[in-house]
Amino acid sequence: MGSRPEGPAPLEIVVPAYNEAGRLPRGLGLLGDKLARLPVRATILVVDNASTDGTAGIARSWRGPVPVRLLRCERRGKGAAVRAGLLATSAPYIGFMDADMATDLAALDDALVLLREGRPVVVGSRRHGRSVVEGYALPLRRLGALAFNRVVRDIAGGLSDTQCGFKFFAGPLGRAAAAEVRTAGFSFDVELLAQCVRRGAVVTDIPVIWRDRPGSTFSVRRHSLQCFVDLARIRARVGRAGPPAVVVRDVVTAPGAVSGPVVPPQGGLSSASGLSSSSASGAGPG
After folding, report:
1. What is the pLDDT of residue 255?
2. Number of domains the chain contains
3. 40-79 confidence digits (pLDDT tens)
4. CA neighbours within 13 Å on the CB side: how many for 33?
5. The domain spanning residue 133 has which CATH number?
6. Cα within 13 Å of Cα(207), Cβ side
7. Is there a domain that residue 3 lies in?
């Protein structure tokens, strides 16, 4: 791989965490080991979402192959935590992942390649034809996810899976979109993506290997109604956000192997963000 240049890390990954003392050590261990093998330097930002357990202490004292820093977010809700984390970044490339690492980290290789090629938004999709999904068998949850994603497609640029906890952005775009997000709960992904679409972003969805992990804080019974209330509010704020995003599929031949033509960002986004490939140096209702 060779030595990597010093200086600010080109990649920052936000990990929202609410009472994740049980799962966070494993998640940070896996993520840190993976990031240490990437061709660019990376850091992790754990956002403690007003936890009442030892989450903050674990993140604060963590020692691993990549730096981990801690941010406290007193406003409850995954959306609030992710928003706070994205706004606290400064890297050219940013993203967020769930603490349980349900999405296999092999997808990071693909996401980084695509970001460096100029893709402004890269998201994991469990409904991509080449994704491998394990343990996602609860009929009520699957039915709710299907209904949810049908409702939000026109808001979020036609994506078939808005809720996979694996999303990456060109840094300036991600921070600008996050600044406009008002949804604190699990539906925040929709508003975040819609704000990217409004800015002319091309959305690339990639296949992932996704394994259901026990301990998710999302509950179909407790959170579904609020999710749909939030969607109504998002639609009122954002509406049909101008021209739909170009959703690029079939870019990846299999999880972990990028191929296919590069689709440049629309609307002059690459020049607005100041990025080029040479400058690179739990789950919600879905």
Report:
1. 47
2. 1
3. 999 999 999 999 999 999 999 999 999 999 999 999 999 9
4. 9
5. 3.90.550.10
6. 17
7. no
Q: What is the spatial distance between Cα 98 and Cα 49, in angstroms, rounded to a whole number?
A: 13
Crossing angle between the packed helical segments 171-180 and 78-87, to the nearest 10 degrees: 140
Q: Say if 259 falls within a structural domain.
A: no
Position of tokens 């170009």? Answer: 246
Say if 126 falls within a structural domain.
yes
Q: Is 248 or 123 the better-scoring residue by pLDDT? A: 123
Query: Which of 70-74, 155-159, 245-249, 262-266 is most confident?
Result: 70-74
Could you give the CA distance from residue 201 to residue 265 in angstroms, rounded to a whole number?
A: 6
Q: CB neighbours (10 Å) of residue 81?
A: 27
pLDDT at 137: 53
| More confident call, 236 vs 199 | 199
Domain region containing 203: 11-253
Whether residue 29 is contained in a domain is answered as: yes
Burial bucket for residue 128 (CB in 10 Å: 0-12, 13-18, 19+): buried
Confidence class for position 235, pLDDT limits 50, 70, 90? confident
Task: Report d(CA 252, CA 125) in Å as an integer.
Answer: 12
For 199-234, letters b (16+ CB in 10 Å) and e give: bbbbbbbbbbbbebbeebbbeeeebbeebbebbeeb
Encoded amino acid at 244, one letter: P
Encoded amino acid at 124, one letter: G
